[in-house]
Amino acid sequence: MKVRIIDVFYVDREYDCFIKFSAPDSITARKYYEKLRVTYKDFFRGDPSLSNVVFPIANSGKLNPEIEKLYDFVPEAEEIIETKR
Q1: Which CA distances in Å does 66 have to 20, 58, 62, 83?
Q2: Is there a contact between 29 and 35 (Cβ–Cβ < 8 Å)?
Q3: CB of 25 within 8 A of CB of 33?
Q4: Using only C-alpha atoms, what is the Rg of the chain?
Q5: Mean pLDDT in order along the chain per 10 residues (85 residues)
Q6: Under a CB-based contact definition with an 8 Å cutoff, are residues 36 and 47 in contact?
Q7: S-S: 33 plus which of 11, 46, 47, 50, CB 3.0-4.6 Å?
């Protein structure tokens, strides 16, 4: 599988661990998620979940230079972004 681990965090609250990884497509991501879920099932407190990043707003402290494209999806976003600048 061509999956790249980006970040792993041990966290508190609802989830024990946050694993950020990159996969070439959704099918590969799902297969990797299933492999993690089965391999570590005895270590999870609850049910793990898989989320897809649709549009990164900020990454590693850097604002997405194409954030204005978000206006196409959320009309009110322009007001929120302008107040943060």
Answers
A1: 22, 10, 12, 17
A2: no
A3: no
A4: 16
A5: 89 80 93 91 82 83 82 64 58
A6: no
A7: 50
